[in-house]
Amino acid sequence: MIGYYNINPGGSGMPEDAFGPRFFKTRFYTWIREACSIDGTVPVLEIMLTSGQVLDVSHISELKDDYMLVSAFIDERDCADTYHTYIRYQTIYCINVLNKSRKERSMGFNVSHEPRLVAGESRLQKAAAETAKEYTKRVEREDEEEKKDKKKETKRRAAKAHAK
């Protein structure tokens, strides 16, 4: 068994989790290609969920910031039919990669099928946008205060000039 990572079930769901979106968008496909490069074998990807359910994954269809869509085999004995299921990252407990002989298994995980990346605002992007809005408001307030100060200074100078 290659690539078993024990994590805290039901983690925070942040991109820093062991099996968060960053893992699947960056390291996963490099890692899985290396693990599945053994000649004469069929790569089998099992995703174990915190509920105990094990998914025998055919391919990953799409990745989003808070979930992924996978195609899983209904019956591993014939691998004839698949179904789609959405998985929240924080429900992934471990990932198993097995290399089975072609006699044991005719079909497995499709390494060449790259998932579609679904754009979405992550929590960090939302926080950055909120911070940018707060910054803009602060700058606008400072500009208004500066304008008021300039008007006061202009009035004070005008009053001083009239007093002479």
Describe this structure in words.
This protein is α+β, with helices and mostly antiparallel strands and 164 residues long. The protein has 2 domains: 100 residues, SH3 type barrels (Roll), CATH 2.30.30.100; 44 residues. Helix content is 34%, strand content 27%. The protein is built from 2 helices and 6 strands, in the order αββββββα. Strands 1, 2, 3, 4, 5 and 6 form a 6-stranded mixed β-sheet that branches. The longest helix is centred in the C-terminal third of the chain and has 41 residues. The N and C termini lie far apart (93 Å).
Topology:
Blueprint: H1 21-35, E1 41-49, E2 54-63, E3 67-73, E4 82-88, E5 92-101, E6 116-117, H2 123-163
Parallel strand pairs: 2-6
Antiparallel strand pairs: 1-2, 1-5, 2-3, 3-4
Count the E strands: 6
How big a fraction of the residues is strand? Answer: 25-35%
Name the shape in a single word. rod-shaped
- The first-level CATH class of the largest domain is given as Mainly Beta
Uncertain residue segments: 4-15
The number of helices is 2
Q: Average pLDDT across residues?
A: 78
Number of domains: 2
Largest sheet entry:
6 strands, mixed
CATH architect. name of the largest domain = Roll
How would you classify the quaternary structure? single chain
How far is the N terminus from the C terminus?
93 Å
Find the structural class using helix and strand composition: alpha+beta
* Proportion of helical residues: 25-40%
Give the helices and strands as they follow along the chain: HEEEEEEH
CATH fold field value of the largest domain:
SH3 type barrels
- Compute the gyration radius: what is it? 28 Å
